């Protein structure tokens, strides 16, 4: 038997899933995350799940990992001290940045401009210049360059970025400076922009490469430690890390290009959602991943997650391919508070996290959280994570009562219902960002809910969005780990090619795209994926002449092989422009960037089919309990999900429990069990 081990580290819990490929049998573990050293929580989960499965560590064939190490380094400002090398005259490229201020008309008054990841005093210039076509205008001055690099040696820099003007067109100067840096700054990891982001726009290219340097030492250290710990335990299987675009990359490559991992965690959930929605027969859906600290949402169209060219983490926005995920500070640990000035209830973005956690965890937390509100309402059982966490109902009531007292409400239940309503509206706003704001009607999509807290709020989100059915996959609390275990290796090549349609030809585009595909395919082959098992996807960034932004357009491989490439791209671009902005221009179209993503085969993983059991779900009914719903106490059935069969119908109000999550079915709704194990919730 062959086992795949999926690991996902969240802000509150670390999820581990052991998957036997042939039978589809799974074993799950959920342990508290250890922010100081994530590998401790990972190994606790791995040890627990292997013991449950009764297998030796040596039987694990692959380890697939979604990590938040790079994300946390950005959010917590705990990255490396970065030195930056620019072309003479461009030393302040990060300080000048782009002229954008978020917020309203007077947003600049209250907006604190983020500090650049590479300080001005740690930035040096080198003499030498390339033209936009890659030709050399001024040769590099070796003496001056070495002196500039040497000046950084006493600054204590821990990583170096080299980003020279127009290097996307010719990387010769950057490679030469990198060679000198290896001699002048031995042992300091170097990132060059022509490797990290070989595309036009010097600010975005520099910022993305600096971000890569900023997180590189931390990611490399974590990957190295985890790899060594796994081997010490007897797990010789290769370690692969999930990229932000939902593909896998071997750990050594991940340590070199960690900027591609900034959304590694959320991407795993979307990948897992695709796998289970496919089994249930749905190709168009929204994903809703609610954990302890935040909620991530995305949109999947025709079975493919929408991929964006910008990755946002906190105040940082870099040019890196990622699943188009939007994140809000709304999770089970989000803290509810009532500002003295307004007396208006607020929920999040502050979170109780894993330590001390919600008051109900009994670990010292006293502030009211979303989890505490769900406990007060009767929606959560007395134990979570298969008995790993016991809930203190009295502590939760005391915490939520502080909100009731501050607002003059008659009971903790009313305050708790208000907390849940507000957090639901916050998450509804995020779902609108990936649907309505992108030109999609959420009523045309299903809603796949997962994460430890997601299924508790999924039915309410379905009611707000009109997205039916609401799909709750099996093991929703560890679905991100499931996504890690069921995706494939992936690599990408890109280049800038600025051409008006009238200035290029189909053959020129084919040649350029084929070269990019060959480059990515060669790297994937080096990671052990045979050429005959690789598939390529082609994407071109287009714009109208005079526009200051581009729109990515997918190119059908069949059109590339023998059709009219420019005509096909033009039609696809016009359709996307019309959908996004509701108008077209007569200006000539321009090709800006070319991009090819090459993927290995998806693993052939079986899924367990549930036996048919008819509509009667009474065999899974374990108890009844009083819950607060629609402004009053009502009786709800408590169901054990492991005892449900295909075809069973659970009518709300009801609470469906399992090891890693709890699903709430509201009054007027019913959950039908699909043969794949997913719950499909619809209005009655």
Walk me through this protein's architecture:
It comes from Williamsia limnetica. One of its GO terms (cellular component) is cytosol. Residues 205-489 form the Hydantoinase A/oxoprolinase domain. Residues 4-184 form the Hydantoinase/oxoprolinase N-terminal domain. One of its GO terms (biological process) is glutathione metabolic process. This protein has 684 residues and is α+β, with helices and mostly antiparallel strands. It folds into 5 domains: 3-74 and 219-242, Nucleotidyltransferase, domain 5 (2-Layer Sandwich), CATH 3.30.420.40; 77-215, 3-Layer(aba) Sandwich (Rossmann fold); 308-444, no CATH class; 490-599, no CATH class; 618-683, no CATH class. Helix content is 32%, strand content 27%. The protein contains 18 helices and 37 strands. The strands form 10 sheets. Strands 13, 14, 15, 20, 25, 26, 33, 36 and 37 form a 9-stranded mixed β-sheet that branches. β36 (669-673) and β37 (679-683) form a beta hairpin. α11 (370-376) packs across α12, α11 (370-376) crosses α13 and α13 (412-434) crosses α14. The protein starts with a strand and ends with a strand.
